[in-house]
Amino acid sequence: MTELIKPVMLPGLDLRDSVGQAANQAAAAGAFFDYRMTLALNTLRRHRAALELFAEYLGEKGLRPNHLHDDPAAWRGITWGLVDGFYKWLLLQGYSVGSANVNLSTIKTYARLAIKAGVVDPAESQLIETVRARSRRRDRQRIDEQRRNEDIPTRIGAKKAEPLLLTTAQTAAIKNQPDTPQGRRDHLLMCLLLEHGLRVGEVAGLRITDIDLQTATLSVFRPKVDKRQIHRLSPETLAAAQRYLSLDYSAIRSPSPALLAGSTKSGALKGSLSIRAIFSRVRLLGLQIGVAELSPHDCRHTWATMASRAHTPLENLMEAGGWSSYAMPLRYIQSNAIANDGVHLDNGENHKR
What we know:
Mean pLDDT: 81
Strand order of the largest sheet: 1-2-3
Helix content: 40-55%
Shape: globular
Strand content: 5-15%
Number of domains: 2
Number of strands: 5
Order of helices and strands: HHHHHHHHHHEEEHEEHHHH
Structural class: mainly alpha
Radius of gyration: 26 Å
Number of helices: 15
CATH architecture of the largest domain: Orthogonal Bundle
């Protein structure tokens, strides 16, 4: 006979209060799970990256939190001073103000979840909310100026104020990689960035099932517009993908569903290529062709600019770039227009007899 489970009575509470408190505890414990269930996969990856950075900072302070992304207990002892220190640490590490702001926003979101789970004191949370991101242009300029004076890089992992534009020769040079497993992976990476204009998160999110060599197409999920698109592979991208997949993908140690594999210091392919790893790799490949501080966004900027110079219609550029409005592609078209076309000066010739 099944034994009946009796509700646990808490001291000083009647049955209704006891059951209600137990329900609160259960709901609080599931706060992280419920929130993360609503997020897109790429958003989860960005959150995980921000939380890993936070864990790295806490490690320098002697703390070793585990599973900040899904374990409320890992947030026990987190204070506003640690969150404020993390933001300043990002700036000192060379992260751009925009990237630091995004990371701070993620940390504050999970701190709120930790309050619901009952592991962060609400009063501490109110202080955490006062940690202010630097959003004004003047603030950003002052921070970058101060960092230049202290020989600290002015950005990691975000867009520059003025993106760098690669020349045709530089574009060809950076795609020309050694015929090695890592080189063939890098060739495909640079083709995806420079010939298809994909965002770094979109590249990192690609899966092996997203590419179809038979039809020469690539399926890309664009989180910013919340839709999936099909890109026809350029001839060079198709050739790079065929060579990489036929020679290297099946031989990857610890294969993953990701299209682009990560690499070890020895150059062996393993696992998957993360967003941070793509930033680091693009920067290194840029240095090898004499371009300092190259980022994936610079490659996207180059792609859009080249497409504009080839007179790609605005509607086509917006669709291919995964933009939700005409504002961004219009910037590339306008920046490549000849400013004084249509201006005619009267130099006196018309008055000569």
